[in-house]
Amino acid sequence: MTISNYYLPQGREVEIFKGAAANGLPVMIKGPTGCGKTRFVEYMAERLGRKVYTIACHDDLTASDLVGRHLIGAEGTFWQDGPLTRAVREGGICYLDEVVEARKDTTVVLHPLSDHRRILPVERTGELLHAHPDFMLVISYNPGYQNLMKGLKPSTRQRFVGLSFNYPDADREVLIVCQESGAEKNVAQQLVALGNDLRRMKDHDLEEAASTRLLIYTALMINSGLTAKEACSVCLVEPLTDDLAMQQAIGRLIDVHF
Amino acid sequence: MEEFIGDLWHRVVTRQAQTDYPDAQVELAVLTPQLAPFYRAMGGSPGKVLEASQPRAFNTQRRLVQRIAGTHRRFSVSWQDERSVRLPPSLALFPERDINEDLYFWLTALAAKQSYLQHWFIDNLRASYELLAEKPGLKKTYNRLVSAVINQRELLTGSSGADQEGEMAIRQALRDPGCIQSLPRTKVGLLPVPLWLYPPPMQIVSIDSEDNLDECESGMATVSQIYGSRKEANRIDDSKETDGLLIFQLESLFSWTEQVELDRCQDEDDEDNLASAVEDLDIISLSRQRRAGAAKVKFDLDLPSVHNDELPVGDGIKLPEWNHQKSQLVKDFCLLQPMLADDAVPVAIPEHLNRTACHLKNRFAKLHLQRQWQYRQPYGEELDLDAWLDNETSPVCSQEEQPCFKARTANARELSCLLLADLSMSTDSALNADQRVIDVIRDTLLLFAEALSGSGDQFAIYGFSSVKNKQVRYNLLKNFSETYSDQARGRIIAIKPGFYTRMGAAIRQSTEILKQQKSQQRLLLIVSDGKPNDIDHYEGRYGIEDTRHAILDAKRQGIQPFCVTIDDKGNDYLPYLFGSQGYALVNDVSRLPTLLPKLYLNLVGLNS
C-alpha cells in the first residue's frame, strides 16, 4: 500500500495511535499551530484504511452541526446526517480540529461516544446509534491559545488518550521541509535554523512561534523564484508580527541566515 | 578672553584629534527595541537586559595630537555579566551609518553566542568563528566590518616596531578568526577592538569588613539618579581607621582614579557635588564601613510604630520563594502579613472623580451581562429555522405554537478579578507639582472599583509592599465577599506609600485567594511602577526570576495574570515575566485611572 501523505514520526505516536485505534479509544492531540497534527491524523487514517471526517470547530458550532439536522427539500423535509453521525454509522475517523473553539455544551455530545458505551443518541430521529467498530474520535487543540473563556472540561479531557506534539527537532525538520517543498538541503537547513531562532522569541516577543508549515511555505516560495530574503519576509515576518520594531529585528535575523 | 581662547583651542584640537564620524552616529537607545529581540532570538538569555557601557581607560599608544587633545584615552567597549549585556551608548566609528548599525547587531550576536569569557583573545575568536560558521549570512556583514575596522586601525596606529607585531596579529585574527591561537606580548596596550567583547571591569569582591550591611542602610532623603550608563564600581577593604588621610606623596597623585580614601558617608555636602564627582570618576570604590552622618536617618527600620500601624490580621502567612541560583523553591521563606486599615473612615467618592466614576459605572452597568444568541425563543430578532424544522419533523408533533425565534440576550458571565496594587516607596515620587504616583494609583483603584461595582463582576483589591522577607505587608482594601461600600472606599483612600516590592510573595498570596473563587475566569491584575526589588538579595535577576516563578505558578492554576505598569523601562523585563501579551505599559501616568477600566474590558473580551 502506498501512502500519499508524508509523515515523519517524532516518537512513538504512530504506535500509540494504532493501539488506541485497535482498542476503540478516542485520541486527543495537543500542539502548537502548524506542527503536523492534521497531517498526522490524515496519515494515520490512510495507514489504517479509514476515512477522515474533519470538522473545524468554531464558537457558533452547535450539537446539530455535528449530529445532523432536518433540511427542506423539494419533497418536504428530510434528515441529513452530520459528519459525526456519518462517521459513527460508516466507520471512520471523526476529527474535531481546534475543539476548544467549540462551546462547552457542544462537546458534551461526544461523551457517550468517547467512553466504553460508544453510542450516539440522535434525539431528533429517535435513533440510538452504536458506533461502527472502525469509528474513532480524534480531537486536537493548541494549548497556547487556551484562554480562560475557552478550555476543555476536565470531564471531557479525561476520556481521551493524550498525545503532545511539538515542532520536530532540527534534523527531522530539515527532512520534512525538503520533502514537502523539494527545497535543497542547505536552504532547508538555514530555514530550520532561522525557525528555531524565531521560536526562542515566543512568549517574550512573539505570540506564536514560526511553525513548520510556515517554513515549508517559505521553502516553496524560494523554489518558485523568490530570493530567500523576500520569501522569508512574506512568509515569516508578515504572518508573525505587525509590530514594526519586531519586523525589523526579524529582518536582521534573516540577514544573519541568508 | 582667556576662557574664549581656551575654548577655541579645545575645539580646534579635539576636532583635529577626532576620528569619529558624528554624522553617522547610531544610538543604542534607538536600536534597543530591535537589538533585544535579536539577542533573544540568537540564543541569549531572556532574563538579561541590554544597557549602555561606560568608557574605560586603555593604555594605548596615542598620536601627538590625540595626546594634546586628551582624547583616545577612554573607550566604550562591550562586555556582559550575569545581569546584562553592555554595549557602547552610541557608535560613530565608521563613516557609514549602516556599518555602525551592523556593528551593534554583530556585538549582540556575539554576546548571545558566548555567555562567559575566560580568555579574551581566544574566546572572542572562537565565538566569532563559530558564529560565522553557523550563520552564513553574517559573513558578508563581518567582512565589511573587518575591513572598516582595519582601515581605521591603520589610520590610528603608527608603525613602530614592537607593537606592530601585536597589531598585525589582531588584524590577522580579525580577517581569519579560525587561525591564530595566541597574541604576542606588547609593551603598550593595543587599541581596543570594537568587534570583540571585553571582560567585565575588575572587581575586588572579597571584603572582610566588620560592619554589617543590614544594620545601617543609606538614609539619603532624595536619590539623584545619574542617567545614561552605569559606573564601574569596586569594593575595597576599608576597615582601617585612616579616613581621608592621603598616605602617599602628593606628586604621585596622577589622576582621579587613584584611590582617595574619601569618606562619603560622613560628607555632608550637597547632592549636586556628589553627582558631579560621580560623573568625573572612572571607578567608584565602595566600602562597607558605614558610620552615617548624624543628620541622616536610618531608613529601612523606619516601620510605623505599633500604635500608628494598620491592624495586622493574624500571625502572618508563610510563603515560599524561588531561588534561581539553586533552582529550588525555598519553603516558608517569606512571612506575609495581611494588614487591615481598621481606623479608615468611610468616605464617599471624592469630588474630582465623581463625574468619571458615574460615567464608568453606567458604561459597565450596560455590560452587566454578555449578549449571546439564544435559541428557541417565543419571540426574537430572527427565525430559528432549526427549531421550526425540528418541531415540524418531530415524531410527536405538537399542535401548540412552538417557540421558533432566536434572540440575542444577556448571558451570565463568571469572572473574578483581583487587583493587586504596588504600594512601594517609589510611589511616593512626585509626578507634577501637586500629584504623586500614589495619588494616581489611589484614583485608579477608586475608579476601577466604581466601574466594577457597576458591572456586577466579582472583584477584590489588595495592595502590597515589603521590608525584606520577614515582613511582606499585604493590605486588604476590598475582599471578594464584601460589597463595595464607603467602608472599602475609605480604606482605598487611606493607602500610603510603603517600603519595597517583593512581588513574588504578593502574587503567591493573591493566587491563593483567587483559587478559592469558584468562577470560571479568574483574572489577576497587577498595577506596578517598577521592577521587583527589596533591600536584601531580592533585586535584579533574583527578584525577576522569583516573580516569574510565581506568575507561571498562577498560570498553571488557571489564573490569568496581567500587569499594568507605569515604568517606562518595563519593556525590558515585563515580557519575560508576563509574556508579550501579558502586560501593558502606560506612558502617560495621569491617564492610568481612565485606561485601566478600558483595559479590563479588553481583557475579559467585552470590547469587541
Could you characterize the architecture of this molecule?
- By secondary structure, chain A is an alpha/beta fold.
- Chain A folds into 2 domains: 13-164, P-loop containing nucleotide triphosphate hydrolases (Rossmann fold), CATH 3.40.50.300; 170-257.
- Chain A contains 12 helices and 9 strands.
- Chain A has helices at 13-23, 37-48, 63-67, 83-90, 104-107, 111-114, 154-157, 170-181, 185-199, 212-223, 228-240, 244-257; strands at 27-30, 52-56, 68-73, 76-81, 93-97, 119-122, 127-130, 136-141, 161-164.
- Chain A has a 5-stranded parallel β-sheet with strand order 2-5-8-1-9. In chain A, strands 3-4 form a two-stranded antiparallel ribbon.
- In chain A, strand 3 and strand 4 form a beta hairpin.
- In chain A, helix 8 packs across helix 10 and helix 9 packs antiparallel against helix 10 (212-223).
- Chain A is elongated, with a radius of gyration of 21 Å.
- In chain A, 40% of the residues are buried.
- Chain B is an alpha/beta fold.
- Chain B has 4 domains: 2-198, no CATH class; 202-218 and 226-247 and 254-299, no CATH class; 317-363 and 413-603, Rossmann fold, CATH 3.40.50.410; 371-411, no CATH class.
- Helices cover 35% and strands 19% of the residues of chain B.
- Chain B is built from 16 helices and 24 strands.
- Chains A and B meet through strand 3, helix 9 and helix 12 of A and helix 2, helix 10 and strand 22 of B.
